[in-house]
Specification:
There is one protein chain. The longest helix has 20 residues. The strands form three sheets. This protein has a four-stranded antiparallel β-sheet. By secondary structure, it is of the alpha+beta class. Bound molecules: zinc ion (ZN).
Length: 264
């Protein structure tokens, strides 16, 4: 699943290509969007901006309309010059927003709705998000408090809870815990506020770097069995939580907390 940094980068690319431009064409295979387009006539509206909130990508149009999309596992937005060959099959197309200069194409995006700013704020999918790890005004203290409240959860699971902190996915869950030297299986209630702050700070630093600069080589993610870059111990991997998301960690740099279940 794309993480906050990927969505953030996609939003910036779309914003640079589309902001200030006039919609010339709006097509969607989603009947709800196609019907909405019949009502509100997207063509002729100006694209005001594109931004991200957690893992939601928001395209703002003049006349108080917002297109919210969520990528889930396989969705993506591409930008093309008119007439340029698409890099994904036409059958995967879900939405096309055309302008004179560029067209934006959403492929395999499973969640899309056209809404207003006010309804967006009322939508629980957006309203209940925790502080956005990538936002300029990120409230780290609030994020730490929300995580701290999940005393029984394992810290790696708590980091994925979008209502605690929005934008962190499976990759940066493992990466930030490694940098902060925290056991992914430690229960939140056994960690100090400093521990949690260190994890949140690491997540923000790593994800901002990935979103704004260039993606760095991962320390632990996807490196099961290979030597830790810090101490040489083989990196461990194990499925964790209800959704069995794979966690990577270094047994030596992130020693087992007393609450870690012993059975693997
Ligand atoms: Zn290590």
């Amino acid at each position: 699943m794309p993480e906050g940094d990927t969505i953030f980068r996609a939003a910036r690319t779309l914003d640079r290509a589309l902001a200030g431009r006039t919609v010339t064409r709006f097509d969607s295979v989603f009947s709800k969007l196609a019907r909405a387009n019949d009502d509100v006539r997207m063509a002729g509206r100006t694209i005001e901006r594109v931004d991200a909130r957690g893992k939601h990508l928001l395209i703002w149009f003049s006349g108080d309309l917002v297109l919210r999309t969520h990528m889930r596992m396989h969705g993506s937005w591409h930008i093309y010059r008119p007439g340029e060959r698409w890099q994904r099959p036409r059958a995967d197309m879900r939405i096309v927003i055309g302008t004179a200069e560029y067209e934006a194409v959403a492929f395999s995006v499973p969640v899309a709705e056209l809404t207003t700013a006010r309804d967006l704020e009322r939508d629980s999918a957006v309203r209940d998000l925790g502080p956005d790890i990538l936002a300029d005004g990120f409230d780290a203290a609030d994020a730490v408090s929300r995580i701290q409240a999940m005393t029984e959860a394992e810290i790696a699971e708590a980091l994925l809870d979008q209502q605690a902190v929005a934008g962190i996915g499976n990759i940066f869950k493992s990466e930030s815990l490694f940098v902060a030297r925290v056991d992914p299986f430690a229960r939140v209630g056994t960690l100090s506020r400093e521990d949690l702050s260190r994890v949140v700070d690491a997540a923000r630093r790593l994800m901002r770097a990935s979103a704004l600069e260039r993606p760095a080589a991962f320390s632990v993610y996807g490196r099961g069995g290979r030597p830790c870059r810090r101490c040489g111990t083989p990196i461990s991997r194990r499925k964790q939580g209800e959704n069995a998301r794979v966690t990577y960690w270094c047994e030596r740099c992130q020693p087992a907390s007393p609450t870690r279940p012993t059975k693997r």
